[in-house]
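For this section, I looked closely at the sequence of one protein beside the tokens encoding its backbone, which the following lines show:
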Amino acid sequence: MTATPPSHDHLIQENQALRARLAEAERLLEERTAAERQGRVILNTLATGVLLLDVEGRYTFANQRAASMFQLSPDELVGKTLFDVLPPEVARAHHERNRRLIAAQAAETYEATFTLPVGTRTFLITEQVLPNAAGEGTLLLSSALDITERIQAEQALRQSEQTLRTLIAHLPVGVSILDQSGQIAFVNPALEQILDIQHEALLAGGYRTRRYLRADGSPMPAEELASRQAFAEQRPSAQVETGVVTEAGRVIWTMVSAVPVTFADWRVILVTTDITARKQAEAALRESQQNLAALIENTDGSIWSVDPQYRLIVGNARYHHDVSAALGRPLAPGEGVLAPELPQTALDEWQAYYDRALGDGPFSVEATTRFRAEPRTIEYRLNPIRTPGGQIAGVAVFGRDITAHKQAEATIRRLAERLELATRAAGIGVWDWDIPKNELVWDDRMYELYGVKREEFAGAYEAWLQGLHPDDRAASDESSAAARRGERPYDTQFRVVWPDGSVRVLKAAGDVFWDTDGTPRRMIGVNYDITELTQAEAALRESEARYRLLAEHSTDVIWTLDLASFRFSYVGPSVERLRGYTTDEVLAQPVEAALTPESNQIIASQLGPRIAAFLAGDESARSMTTEVDQPRKDGSIVPTEVVTTLLADAEGRVTAVLGVSRDITARKQAELALRQLNETLEQRVAARTAELARANDELVRAIRLKDEFLATMSHELRTPLNIILSRLELLLEEFDGPLTPRQTASLRRIEASGRHLLALIEDILNFSSLEAGTLPLSLTAVDVVLVCRHSRQQVAASVTQKRLTLTTTLDAQVTTVRADERWLTQILVNLLSNAVKFTPEGGAIGLEVRGDPTRQRVTFTVSDTGIGIAPEDQGRLFQPFVQLDAGLNRQYAGTGMGLALVRRLTEAHQGSVSVESTPGQGSRFSVSLPWQTARGAAWVLPDVPDDRPAPGC
């Protein structure tokens, strides 16, 4: 008996089942798209340029930062070689380095300086070989961090430090610095000369064996030393006259000033001036004027004395030299020092100085000298001269050049200001905790990091601990305690809870300073916000899990055939589901074992002519779809559809074949069933047979076209993504060792590439769904203001980057429109994105909403001041995969699907789209929708049952 043919209803059910499988595939693609979008944003916001080069030095990938170094977009940079963007000598050197690294399977970090379109820049470059699917390194991952400003800052800092040390080394006064333990950490040569102690002896504490005298010659206890007072009491001790008795019994008279400081490794700065000469001069003055004159001639600086009538008593050579230079003549003893040749302001100033010394006693003043060719800062010390009877006989003046000292002070201030600017710019907060007093001092940035105002913080350790997340307080307290015990450095992270309830993650590090007895006295450290970093790491881990899940459950088998060895270099794990063999088993077999003898003959007859045609310039020969039979491990045969692509190296030689194999058993069975049904129906009813044959042919054609379309998309778009994901899986499983932050950056770059491919897939599949009538619409009352705001937000970053002006004009009477909010937003985003793309920098874009109560229509209009569209080209605007000319394709990237989707989505809403444009002046795209539509919560496009769930539901 003849078997009963499948009924027409049975065919419809099979058709619906096939569509359901397609909907599931679309849902998986949408989930993958979301993950890829996250990674792409992260990678393109990195401050580090990330590049991927093949063995021939050709860039196969670049993030936004890397491309901007060459003033190119990532798409423009990909495909170029080192020799296209770098000087020949530089490109050749780096090309040889890269080949050496790939050959050695090694990694290297180095600094390099390049002259790029953006100027001469210095980069810290890390290069590492990435393995291919067979574990062989054929790609080079290069990350470049621009350290030009850092190097310049370091050089400036070193120069400033060197200048400061040079100035201190040449100061005519002794300078020494005490560290936290009270030991001498630094001395300049002048102090060695003043105290007559060698540098090593001073650092070893040799000064402690000296005896010290008060100004009156009596012994000075150690507690009265300026250094001891400043160190113990943490207050300045100025101008302490101290006699130092050398081992030979000679007395060195000094004037010591000590100032406490709060630097990390400095506690007290001492300035020691040798006043032995002055003391000797005073003694000589009492003994004889002749001895005084001899002494002052050997003193560094200007020394002179005047009587109460401002007449010169005596002056040293420096003084007479300076006066002669100022007056143009020498000044003799007994002659008035307030000579008429001097400016009146100088005369008034110095008369006031002399009167002050004569009336009030000794004092010091700083002034700019008028006796030198270049302005110099001089410290003048004026002391009244008294007779043995106590009467004032005049004024003695000592002028000391302190220009270098002032410059050193200014340099120190500049260094401190630079440090403050650096921490502020980096978002780093600085804190200082006095442990015995429990006083915690924060800078302004610390209050910002903890979300509190200055007056709201109690300034104690407990107040800081209270601001932490309750779950992190115990661990943070223990980290601080361990650092104070000296067990480990203070380096930790924790969460803080702001008063508004938001949580931020902070990184903390600091140093502990101890007393001589080992008691912790002080902690100084920094905090900085790492919230975004921790969020990015969490997102990356989530994305990695999604990628692994997709790869493990993919039904397509991805493989690569190396033509040199004519063996598989990679086979995806899905091969076990398709053929029953594991990946290792397939890699161990010859290529011929993957096909039946008949299919081997088909492929063998196609491959040679196809490669020859491709090398001759026939680009259509690059990709091909073929149906072949493959043997399974259990002896059965599985029919498959194989999409293959020829892969060429930098020199144009075909080196490999990339393939995607898909099980088409179900499709073959459906085709066979349809053929059997057609034959049966033709025998029974001629008229009905003809009708069903046409229907079946259309159904088969639709299924074939759909399969071919999806197969092409799988090859052209999804295959690169699967390769990227496979590479990501190898890295994540740490076959090359533990991951570093730089490797994490490369993973983000791979993630961004995948997002780009999935974005293309989404556009194409959305369009395909619209064409097939399988895209559902859910009509609700959509808030017009809200949908316009969301559309603007999605293009805000591009508008800001191109410095465009975006204005919105809304009709007050139009508050809602009945539409699918998601697809209406997509329509507006596509139109706004086109406007941004084709509008030059500094241009204007407008979004306008108008209602027509008479026609019951709402019109959304997007206008721009861009390049415009010629009238003869406007008719082709809304066709899929169309851009207007080759010039536009090179300058403006895209798939040509945006406006086609706009038209299809608008028509699905029972609306219409139109364009008005003038070349060189701009364009206006208008979408008109019904203001009031039929009631109902949701509806779908024709040919889809109302009760069918939308994809992803």
Remarks:
- The longest strand covers residues 119-131.
- The chain is about 45% helix and 25% strand.
